[in-house]
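One-letter codes give the sequence; each number marks local geometry. A record appears below:


***
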Amino acid sequence: MSECIFCRIAAGEIPADIVANDDEFIAFRDLHPLAPTHVLVVPKRHLRSLDEIEAFGDAAAGRMLRFTAAAARSAGVATSGYRVVSNTGPDAGQEVDHLHWHIIGGGPLGGMV
């Protein structure tokens, strides 16, 4: 989708501070971090949100989870701890209509909400 910012980042059309990258997924630092480390994990295939995960397939969903853990290690937060969040829909605060996970860490995070 040419109008989707995450599709454009995944295609290399928009520069990003990339943490991890493979054929299916890309992880890059958030431009407006909520913590010292804030990385977004995005599938290169466009899906609007976690609510469409069935279209992704079980194998790809499992690979995305493994890629997310590897990206957290690459970002340097695996040892101290991190949070993984996916906002789904407007009530949850989803700002970009492309499935993505936030890896948030790099210091004490406090409560969940």
In short: The mean pLDDT is 94. The first strand starts at residue 18 and ends at 21.
